[in-house]
Amino acid sequence: MNSLPETLQRYFLAFILTIVLFIILTYVISMGLGILVLFSTAEGLEFSRGSKTIYPLLFVAVEVNVNAGLYFLLLWWIFALCFAAAWRFRESLLIQIGGFLSKTRGSPFSNNLLAMPLITSMLFVATIVLHFLQSQSGVPTGGPSFGDPFSAFFQFSRAAVVEEIIFRIIPIGAFLVTYISIVGKSTRPHFSSVQRFKTCILAVLLPEKAKERVGLRTVGEGGLFGGGLTVVEWTMVVFTASLFGIAHYGGWEIGKILPAALSGVVFAIAYLYYGIQAPILLHWFFNYYFTVFGLSSDFYSAEIDTMYSLTFLANIFLGVILWLAVAIFGLIALFGKFKKKTIPPEP
């Protein structure tokens, strides 16, 4: 009798894995479409020959004009490097695909790239529901105006990198460097100056690895709510997410604040667990991924339009399935606790 639930579980996990791998395949396709639509269409070539202003010092009023096409290629390579890092996180994607269906190889969340469709689809569904509820309550979301679709695609792509540097990597990274340096002096007094410097660099790039290095409890060991994140770390998550939400009020309507803040919480937790590439990729999903499919469908054959529809439906479907699974298992857990309390103890 016990084999039936296990068999059903394996079939369910195999079904989820199929959708996850399809979505990962669409990530690869979308990366190719970005290069194709910008450098093989007349409109894209015209846009790429123009210039864009960058602020290399971020908070200092120093402007530099660069070629738009070269700037986009720089952003594209940053995304590509992030995907490469996500593929190799902890265990490689190929090893974790086998582990997804196995009880002995840990969680699919051990690999950043395998976990990404699970995280983004649930967050995508949550933001859609939140936007709908706000619109029904008369809270507008609005949206920025860019003038032409290529400018919108470029601005969204740039935001996935620049906004993560400003709202996640700089504030949380600076906090982690300070926090881990202070803790490391007491837990690892034998560290040399070079080792401490490497630990500080690691704190920005891979916070989990830096915490392991100085003997702190990690998310992998204690989970999100089991001591893996300290109170101060949670404070930084909420603080940066709040700033991220408020910043979206410029260019959007007030209804964008809450969905952006919710996304900011997920982005920050992903940064603390997976590393610097994770929040950039999650932001990439919302800014680049769907935008490039919509833009490409305007210039290429109906196959792109079909792929765009399948991509959208696959993410929605996976998110709904996962939220239902969370609700069902949550109710089962609550029922189990309630049943435990109602059964009188044996004398």
Structure description:
With 347 residues, the protein is mainly α. The chain has helices spanning 3-39, 42-48, 68-88, 93-100, 112-136, 149-187, 193-205, 207-213, 219-222, 224-228, 231-247, 257-274, 277-297, 302-342; strands at residues 51-54, 64-67. It has one domain (3-339). The chain is built from 14 helices and two strands, in the order ααββαααααααααααα. Helix 3 (68-88) crosses helix 6, helix 6 runs antiparallel to helix 11 and helix 13 (277-297) crosses helix 14.
Task: Please name the defining characteristics of this protein.
mainly alpha; 76% helix; 347 residues; single chain; 14 helices
Q: Secondary structure elements and their pairing?
A:
Layout: H1 3-39, H2 42-48, E1 51-54, E2 64-67, H3 68-88, H4 93-100, H5 112-136, H6 149-187, H7 193-205, H8 207-213, H9 219-222, H10 224-228, H11 231-247, H12 257-274, H13 277-297, H14 302-342
Antiparallel strand pairs: 1-2
Structural class: mainly alpha
Shape: globular
Relative helix content: over 70%
Distance between the terminal alpha carbons, to the nearest Å?
32 Å
Query: Would you report the number of β strands?
Result: 2
Describe the largest sheet.
Answer: 2 strands, antiparallel
Give the rounded overall mean pLDDT.
87
Give the low-pLDDT segments. none
Strand/helix succession: HHEEHHHHHHHHHHHH
Major beta sheet, strand line-up: 1-2
Total number of domains: 1
What is the radius of gyration? 22 Å
User: Strand share of the residues?
Assistant: under 5%
**Tally of DSSP helical segments:** 14
